[in-house]
Write a structure and sequence with these properties.
Elements (H helix, E strand, L loop, with lengths): L2 H14 L3 H14 L4 H13 L5 H11 L4 H13 L3 H14 L4 H13 L3 H14 L5 H11 L7 H16 L18 E7 L6 H12 L5 E7 L6 H9 L2 E4 L5 H11 L3 E4 L9 H5 L5 E4 L14 E5 L15 E5 L25 E4 L8 H13 L4 E5 L6 H12 L8 E4 L5 H6 L6 E3 L8 H8 L4 E4 L8 H8 L6 E2 L2 H13 L4 H10 L5 H24 L1
Parallel strand pairs: 1-2, 1-4, 2-3, 4-5, 5-6, 6-7, 8-9, 8-11, 9-10, 11-12, 12-13
Length: 550
């Protein structure tokens, strides 16, 4: 075996064991020793991609040049380009992989992801369905990608979306449920053990909302375990790890092994923070490793799992009524709001906007949320404000074809292309937040509302306008705004949305006052939220324990 092969084998073994960071050195050494070996480059590129490193595409591209007819190489390069926000280039690679191997399910799946990132939801759904249909045994991850996409679609009835989620359970999860109930540990004289499972314990929106709860947990009553199922490790990961009593890296563990670890830890309530987003471990929950299991925060819909007991929400996101129509989980409605928000350190001041520029509406949401209904509504607003501009800030927004796509969509409603501005820069948090100062009003999309972006806008003193829908995903904006005492920013009709945004652009509230409203509200009171959340966790465990004893 050559030195290059030895280094490559060492690197792949480390990666297989979940030590992706440690694998980089040997894999880089293998490439340096054998720069024309495409396998070595592809494995290094895949490892960089899994770690979220920007160099992935530049590492993989030379390998593709060496093996241009290998569909797997084209597909991997497409994934790296997509992660870098180079959406059009990614689509070309996925299309070439499909030309080389017609019906290639993985390429259809990834092309669906690329179309979703570009806001082409009808095409995204079609490719996800092709990926599901072209494989005799489609992966749960591909099926989850399809389900995630249904939340962005403005043409699918809510009942159909819930039914599709139940299909995921029937197809992938239900048969995994053990034939015996999980053990209920005696509770007297000990703390309740809560376990959190997420691939996003890193620089990710979920971590921003989870971190204050982790810090505020009452450690005299609760023992906290974090199960990190992702491969990315960064400064946020280190902060969360330091705040958790028990930390388990489970990225390299299969579902059976991970479930066994959770059982041995004696978890009372196991909380999913991912739903059907990338890297989820719902199949661990399907194995029922804890007596009470709940989903919260990371996904705006049902998981569809019969093994998921609870779903945390609030009375605005899901008003009381026929709860069964929302999925198999029982709904736990938190008293004020379903989450809490803690500002990042060193955020810029909420300054008064400049008055020597045209009115500027802004959306910092994922471009996938810009549904046809959203574009039609915002075009009506721009028609009512002929001098106004629209800023779209989102990853991937610098891609030229993506810009052309959205400008064409707005142009079809009579909006001139030069009125739409884009910013796709990956900026440090302080600079990212400062961009809100160039906006007069933040626009919430539909049916998939913003969460992080709404909190960020209010933090920077920018009023947010939302249109309340009928489901959790389309009522998050209403929940957040009502919680901070701004129900007047919640529209109930498209005409009211346009009128409200127009009025706010003409008479902008004092920015410092909006920030103060956020920070002094239940949304900004992280300790109050955590005490309410802990009460819900106790209720969930007690109900599950009573059911098991019956």
């Amino acid at each position: 075996m050559t030195d290059a092969e030895t280094q490559h084998q060492l690197g792949t073994n480390l990666r297989r064991q979940g030590q992706a960071c440690e694998a980089l050195g040997p894999l880089e050494a293998a490439v340096q020793l054998a720069p024309t070996n495409p396998l070595f480059r592809l494995d290094l590129g895949a490892t960089l991609l899994g770690l979220g490193r920007a160099a992935a595409a530049e590492t993989i591209a030379p390998a593709v040049a060496l093996v241009p007819t290998l569909p797997e190489a084209r597909n991997l390069l497409g994934c790296a380009l997509l992660a870098a926000g180079r959406t059009t280039e990614a689509q070309a690679e996925f299309a070439e992989a499909l030309r080389l191997r017609p019906g290639y399910a993985a390429a259809h799946d990834n092309l669906g992801r690329a179309c979703r990132a570009q806001g082409r939801m009808a095409e995204a759904l079609r490719h996800f369905q092709l990926a599901l249909g072209r494989s005799p045994s489609p992966s749960p991850a591909t099926h989850s990608n399809f389900l995630l996409a249904t939340n962005y679609a403005d043409s699918l009835p809510a009942a159909e979306i819930v039914a599709r989620h139940r299909e995921w359970d029937a197809r992938h999860a239900r048969s995994l449920r053990p034939g015996f109930p999980p053990a209920i540990a005696p509770f007297a004289g000990r703390r309740l053990r809560i376990g959190y499972v997420s691939p996003d314990f890193c620089q990710h929106a979920v971590a921003f909302f989870f971190a204050p709860v982790l810090a505020a947990h009452d450690r005299t009553r609760f023992e906290i375990f974090c199960y990190h199922s992702g491969s990315v490790r960064d400064a946020v990961t280190a902060q969360l790890r330091a705040a958790a009593e028990h930390w388990r890296d489970i990225a390299a563990l299969d579902d059976d092994t991970a479930a066994g670890l959770i059982r041995r830890d004696g978890i009372d309530v196991l909380v999913d923070l991912a739903g059907h987003t990338a890297g989820n471990r719902l199949l661990v929950f399907a194995r029922r490793p804890a007596p009470a299991q709940a989903t919260w925060l990371g996904y705006p819909n049902t998981t569809g799992l019969a093994a998921m007991d609870w779903r945390l929400t609030d009375a605005t996101c899901l008003p009381p009524g026929d709860d069964a129509r929302h999925g198999p989980e029982k709904l736990l409605r938190l008293p004020d709001v379903f989450c809490c928000y803690q500002p990042p350190p060193d955020c810029p001041p909420a300054e008064t906007p400049a008055t020597d520029r045209p009115p500027t509406f802004g959306s910092f949401n994922n471009l996938a949320k810009l549904s046809p209904s959203t574009i039609r509504l915002w075009a009506q607003l721009l028609a009512a404000q002929p001098a106004a501009r629209l800023l779209l800030k989102s990853p991937g927004a610098n891609d030229p074809e993506t810009q052309n796509f959205f400008r064409a969509q707005f142009a079809s409603h009579g909006v001139a292309p030069e009125r739409i501005r884009f910013n796709g820069e990956a900026l440090p948090m302080r600079q990212h937040l400062a961009l809100y100062l160039g906006c007069d009003v933040a626009l919430d999309p539909l049916p998939y509302n913003g969460t992080t972006t709404t909190c960020e806008a209010l933090l920077m003193g920018v009023p947010v306008v939302t249109l309340a829908g009928e489901t959790h995903v389309s009522r998050v904006g209403a929940s957040l705004l009502r919680c901070v005492g701004l129900p007047e920013f919640v529209a109930t009709t498209p005409a009211e949305y346009v009128s409200l945004a127009t009025r706010l652009a003409a008479s902008i509230p004092r920015r410092a006052e909006l920030r103060a409203r956020l920070l002094t509200s239940p949304l900004g009171d992280t300790v109050r939220f955590t005490r309410n959340y802990e009460t819900a966790m106790l209720e969930a465990w007690q109900a599950s324990a009573a059911a098991a004893a019956a």
